[in-house]
Amino acid sequence: MKARRKARTVALQALYELDCSSHEPGLVLSQREEESKLPEGQHEFARALVFGVLKDRTRLDRWIARFAPEWPVDQIAIVERNILRIALWEFTIGALTPVRVAINEAVELAKLYGSDSAPRFINGVLGSLADHSEELAQAVQAEPAGKGK
After folding, report:
1. How far is it, in rounded angstroms, from Cα 4 to Cα 76?
2. Within a domain: 148
3. What is the spatial distance between Cα 138 and Cα 92, in angstroms, rounded to a whole number?
4. What's the pTM?
5. Which of 25, 98, 126, 134 has the greatest CB tally within 10 Å of its CB?
6. Structural domain count, the chain
């Protein structure tokens, strides 16, 4: 598995656990990192994903609900919901990854960890969001990270 995909996997595992519990984020992430033996330099990437998504979860969920209204965020499976959040955060707020790369990586995570229909679902929802990437980028500029709650 590629180094960045492994970091995304660790982030997904941590976010999944945090979505299901009231555990402390730093501890959860540290445990996942230790178990996975992330390659050198990928700890920072996994941390940026986890803490970025946590900080802006409300804004991310609002965007998902707005641009994919047929899928209420609270009814999306936990794995798929967090894959969407990670990819959306990566190509909007974090601006760490080109849109197409973020979508491709999200689809690959969905193939590994989601339901049979997850890859198609993830691709469709992120495609819809990507169609509005300029609007989302403007929203990020107008509303600093962590303020979109």
Report:
1. 25
2. no
3. 9
4. 0.91
5. 126
6. 1
Q: Could you tell me the residue range of the domain that residue 42 belongs to? A: 3-142
Q: Is 91 helix (H, G, I), strand (E, B) or coil?
A: helix
Residue-wise pLDDT tens for the chain (149 aa)?
A: 788 999 999 999 999 999 999 899 999 998 998 898 888 889 999 999 999 999 999 999 999 999 888 889 999 999 999 999 999 999 999 988 999 999 999 999 999 999 999 999 999 999 999 999 889 988 888 876 565 44
| The pair of three-digit structure tokens given for residue 84, joined into one six-digit string | 């969407």
Residue 25 in any domain: the answer is: yes
Domain-embedded: residue 69: yes
104-116 burial string, b = 16+ CB within 10 Å, else e? ebbbbbbeebbee
